[in-house]
Each structure stands twice: as structure tokens, then as C-alpha cells.
């Protein structure tokens, strides 16, 4: 297995096997120790047989990946000393294809005490199944923004940017049509086929787009949540996101438990749109009228919010694991 989740390293140390050491003080999360294990040589038979607590980061995005994930989950009963297991799952973008995980949950007789699912899912109950943010595409080499860029008061020359794959019949075609009809001088770099990995030149082009514009447009692809949202926040570029339902398996956009539930709950400084034709140009006109200092202040506020959000997700992750893995030990003390 290879690392395929685009999770920011600051969200928490996540890996295919996270073994918690025996010297754990559950009442004091900073003393929760883990071992990072990842790479193609990490398979169920190479995991230490005396492991007591494990977090598996698995890919459930498509049937072939699900089959591999199930091999890991089916192996859990073989670890005789295992006391606790949790999963971080790259889920189905259509939101409805994660039910295969249910038999592995503790409430259904399985070994998994908690599951964190990337992408919206009707299974999320915040008791046993939690939503997890997509984060930035670290697997494609996305870097941290340099501090010099974020502290700079220089003006960015483009009012907005969009770099991405344009799917036939998608709102991304609508977005490009609006920008073309209005002659908006935005930074655009599109392609017709999605590629899982970036080339050096394509990554540099994308980073340049984020550095040179204060607004990043996020028309929905297969799911409204995309790496670009978090990558824009990392670089202090305001994300404009498409807040509408694309698949019947996903919650309605206006539902409190919809796609952007985590971002809305934590009051993310985003702009939400439902119709690019009607709403895009007023957003860009407002952007052009903004004073330079306002843009600089907003940049810093975006980065500050994103930093606090990552910490909140980290703390929630550790809190859930502490409760699920060690609550019995806490009650006995």
C-alpha cells in the first residue's frame, strides 16, 4: 500500500499503522505516543504481532481499493493483544459507497472503535463515525506556504485563479464561460483529464496561481470538497466554493450535516455560491474594490484560521482515540 490520502501532516500523525506505545497516560494527550509505519512493505503480516492499539489509514474510494482495505480489517482478529482499532478512510466521493465498513465497527460486532471518513457520508454520527477534512494533497508534493509570502504586503496581480480539470457538463465549464464572457483577468490553467500526480512544471504553475491571486475559485468536480480549498487557505487565498449537492447519496447542501459540515461548524472564512453565472461577477467586483490593506489583513486571517482549524481537528482526533481506546483504563484509576 502507498500513501494516497491528501491529509496535511499538521492534522495529526496518520499512517497505515499507528501503534500506540504501552507507556500511555490517557488523561494527558501530549503523552500519547505513536509509531509511524508506512510503505509498500507494510502489510498485515509485517505489523508487530504484539500491537495493542492501531489506527489504519485506508483507501475506500473505489472497489479495488476497498478490497485491499478489507484485507487489513479482516486481519485485525489475528492480533491477539489488540485492545483498540480505529480507521481513517478516504471515502466514496458519491457519499453512499461506504457501507462496506459497517460490519467492522464495534457496534456491529467488529473491532473498529472509531472511523474518520473523508468526504460527506450519511453514516457520520459523531459517536462512532466522524467526518475528516480532505486537507492538502501532500501525496502530490504540495508544500507549506513560505512565511515570507504570508507576511508580505505586496499586492497579488490577479483577482482570482482556477487551476484544475474541466469535466464535460460540469459547473467548471459554466465558470470558464462566465469568466470568458466577462473578460475577467483571472489566472487560468485547465486540462481535460485528471492526473493523480503533478509534474514539476504543473505543480509550479499551480503554486504560482495561489501566490499571485487573492481568490481561489473552487467549482465542484466529482465532489464539492477538494484539495484546492485547503491549499488556498494554506496560501492565504480566499476559497470560493460551490455549495450544492452533486450526488443523491450526499446530504442536501443546506443540511447542517452536509458536505461542508466541518468547515461551517468551525466558521471557515469561505465564500459559498450555488450559481456561478449569477454570483461570480459580484464577488470579483467586490474584490477589485477592496483596499490593499484589507486584502493583506484577510490573507493573514485566512492562514490563522486554517492553523487553528488543523489544531482543532488534531485535538478532536486525539480526544476520540483517548476515549475509545483508554476510557476503561481512566475509569479504573
UniProtKB/TrEMBL annotation:
GO biological process, any: protein O-linked glycosylation via mannose
Domain of life: Eukaryota
GO CC term, one of those recorded: Golgi apparatus
Pfam family for this entry, one: RXYLT1_C
Any one GO molecular function term: ribitol beta-1,4-xylosyltransferase activity
Residue intervals of the RXYLT1 N-terminal domain: 28-133
RXYLT1 C-terminal domain location: 139-326
Descriptive protein name: Uncharacterized protein
The organism of origin for this protein: Amblyomma americanum (Lone star tick)
Amino acid at each position: 500500500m502507498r500513501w494516497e490520502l491528501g491529509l496535511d501532516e499538521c492534522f495529526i500523525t496518520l499512517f497505515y499503522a499507528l501503534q500506540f506505545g504501552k507507556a500511555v497516560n490517557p488523561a494527558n494527550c501530549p503523552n500519547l505516543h505513536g509509531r509511524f509505519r508506512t510503505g509498500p512493505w507494510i502489510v498485515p503480516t509485517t505489523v508487530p504481532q504484539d500491537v495493542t492499539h492501531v489506527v489504519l489509514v485506508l483507501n475506500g474510494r473505489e472497489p479495488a481499493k476497498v478490497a485491499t482495505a478489507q484485507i487489513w480489517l479482516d486481519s485485525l482478529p489475528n492480533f491477539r493483544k489488540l485492545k483498540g482499532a480505529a480507521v481513517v478512510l478516504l471515502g466514496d466521493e458519491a457519499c453512499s459507497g461506504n457501507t462496506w465498513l459497517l460490519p467492522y465497527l464495534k457496534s456491529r460486532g467488529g473491532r473498529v472503535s472509531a472511523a474518520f471518513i473523508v468526504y460527506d457520508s450519511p453514516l457520520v454520527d459523531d459517536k462512532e463515525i466522524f467526518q475528516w477534512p480532505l486537507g492538502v494533497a501532500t501525496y502530490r508534493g504540495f508544500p507549506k506556504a513560505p512565511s515570507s509570502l504570508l507576511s508580505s504586503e505586496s499586492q497579488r496581480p490577479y483577482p482570482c485563479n482556477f487551476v484544475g480539470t474541466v469535466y464535460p457538463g460540469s459547473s467548471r465549464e459554466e465558470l470558464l464561460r462566465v469568466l470568458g464572457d466577462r473578460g475577467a483577468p483571472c489566472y487560468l490553467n485547465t486540462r481535460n483529464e485528471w492526473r493523480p500526480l503533478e509534474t514539476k512544471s504543473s505543480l509550479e504553475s499551480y503554486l504560482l496561481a495561489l501566490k499571485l491571486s487573492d481568490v481561489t475559485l473552487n467549482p465542484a468536480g466529482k465532489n464539492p470538497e477538494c484539495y484546492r480549498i485547503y491549499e488556498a487557505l494554506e496560501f492565504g487565498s480566499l476559497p470560493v466554493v460551490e455549495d450544492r449537492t452533486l450526488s443523491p447519496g450526499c446530504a442536501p447542501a443546506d443540511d447542517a450535516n452536509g458536505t461542508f459540515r466541518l468547515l461551517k461548524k468551525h466558521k471557515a472564512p469561505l465564500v459559498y455560491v450555488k450559481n456561478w453565472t449569477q454570483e461570480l461577477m459580484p464577488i470579483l467586483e467586490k474584490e477589485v474594490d477592496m483596499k490593499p490593506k484589507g486584502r493583506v489583513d484577510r490573507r493573514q486571517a485566512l492562514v490563522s484560521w486554517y492553523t487553528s482549524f488543523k489544531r482543532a481537528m488534531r485535538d478532536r482526533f486525539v480526544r476520540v482515540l483517548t476515549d475509545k481506546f483508554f476510557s476503561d483504563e481512566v475509569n479504573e484509576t
